[in-house]
Amino acid sequence: xKRIMLILFSFAKAEKVISRSFELLGxxxxxxxxxxxxxxxxxxxxxxISDVGFLGDKVTExxxxxxxxxxxxxxxxxxxLIIEQGEEYSGTVKAEMLSKDELADLKSxxxxxxxxxxxxxxxxxxxxxxxxxxxxxxxxxxxxxIPYEVYYDGExxxxxxxx
Length: 163
Fold this sequence. Notes:
- This protein is α/β, with parallel strands linked by helices.
- 40% of the residues lie in helices and 23% in strands.
- Helix 5 (137-142) links the parallel strand 4 (117-122) and strand 5 (148-152).
- The mean pLDDT is 80.
């Protein structure tokens, strides 16, 4: 049984990495998907909203809350679709939203050998996801001895083949 872990630090253009995770999934295998959603808007977007000026603090806060709520709703919908898609496969598929505070536990699971293959969708777009850029991606990858693939907004950026 192979344990595949898909980490979605970004949901932008994630279809390719999601499809890849299902390509790796065999009959007896497990796919665990962890999704992360920012809980605050990037400074650049927040500044843009507040720079409009005539909105005022309360309306600006409401707009920010609405944007975050919509992004979270879309992310949860994407995870639900992954679970639905997983029902077509013989392997087991589990998906959940995690907070930044739970990243240490996830890293620990990887380091303890609870994953045999790792896929990550990341972003380097400061405008979209400033908080995502704080995740210690290189630190995670430096400590693991399993094959992995890293995608940036759906495009394969680097990989480590079978060890």
